[in-house]
Amino acid sequence: MNPEAGKIDWQYPAPRKKGFGAFIDRLVGPGATPAELWLQFGFAVAAGLTMLYFGLQPELGWNGWQVAVAAYLVFDICGGIATNATNAAKRWWHRKERQNFKSHMKFILPHFYMPLFIMLAFFPGQWDLFAIIYGYLVLGAIGIAQTPLYLRRPVAFILYTGALVMNAYLFEMPLGLEWFIPLLYLKLFMAHLIREAPYRPIDK
């Protein structure tokens, strides 16, 4: 098989209407291949279990609530990184009727719960931390979504670089949480907001 072979196909099959399949189609995009499903769910589960294991280590000193929050968010964010990067998700979340500012922000804004959970579990009362992380997410998403399509990718990379600098110099994340800011913005700035051509496998 030629790994360079592929076709661009914006046409997706009709989403299933009932059962668990309907939920999956609306989450990851209808027509996802088995390989795409294995990648996104396998990565999410592996990342979540790894975080659960490390969160239970005595040297971290985490309580049960903190372990649960960290393990869930790693599962959620890593699953979102892989899912939003798949071509099945690209053609679904960037289909014609969603190619507008309002749709992009409707996806981004509900993610306030991620920095909120981190703040409540590990930095109680530090609302400035929540405000900076979520504020940068919202303002960055606005900037990316309002940028002309042909410049959107480099703008997203620039804003993601800013997030890495913020993580390195603005916050002192404790041992075990160094991943949070880089992976949060990787999921939303890089994996989700950038529209890309949805390559699909060539039928044999």
Task: Explain how this protein is built.
The protein is mainly alpha-helical and 204 residues long. The protein has one domain (18-200). Helices cover 65% and strands 2% of the residues. The protein has nine helices and two strands; from the N terminus they run βαααααααααβ. It has helices at residues 19-28, 34-55, 64-85, 87-93, 101-108, 113-122, 127-145, 149-169, 180-192, and strands spanning 7-8, 199-200. Strands 1-2 form a two-stranded antiparallel ribbon. The radius of gyration is 18 Å and the shape is globular. The mean pLDDT is 95.
List keywords for this structure.
mainly alpha, 2% strand, 204 residues, 9 helices, two-stranded antiparallel sheet
